[in-house]
Amino acid sequence: MTSTTSPQLESMVPIQENKIILILSFTILLVVMNTTMFNVALPSIIIDFSLNSSTASWLVSGYSIMFAIASLAFSRLSDFIPISRLLFFGLSILGIASIIGFFSNHFLLLLGTRNLDLIKKPSETIKCKMLIKTCMSVKI
């Protein structure tokens, strides 16, 4: 069976896939770096808010727990709500939570805004899944 696609089109596909892989890799790097940077800042947060280490560890643990819950919720919501709306919602909440978190003077407010901040992360994950699904053809 012969292929009807032109050689130029076939040569463009790997370049597009390479760009997608590069974008996805960079996105994953940012997600991991976000958690790592917060771990680096934890000693300063402990001093600034006069916390013990077990209380401050809730910033990291709560983030991981809420990320898992939000990922499941956003995956299910993406079946019913357009991804552009989910992404807009995630970006809006991220902006609001970042501003409130920047000015927070209380630990519980910081913890709440940190957990609200992660709502954008599952929307990025869903966007990446849809990008893979629509742009990359998987050959089995």
Automatic annotation (TrEMBL):
It is found in: Cell membrane. It comes from Virgibacillus indicus. SUPFAM superfamilies: MFS general substrate transporter. Keywords: Membrane, Transmembrane, Transmembrane helix, Transport. This is Major facilitator superfamily (MFS) profile domain-containing protein. It holds the Pfam family MFS_1. Residues 20-140 form the Major facilitator superfamily (MFS) profile domain. The chain crosses the membrane at residues 20-42, 54-74, 86-111. The lineage of its organism: Bacteria, Bacillati, Bacillota, Bacilli, Bacillales. It is a multi-pass membrane protein. Gene3D superfamilies: MFS general substrate transporter like domains. One of its GO terms (cellular component) is plasma membrane. One of its GO terms (molecular function) is transmembrane transporter activity.
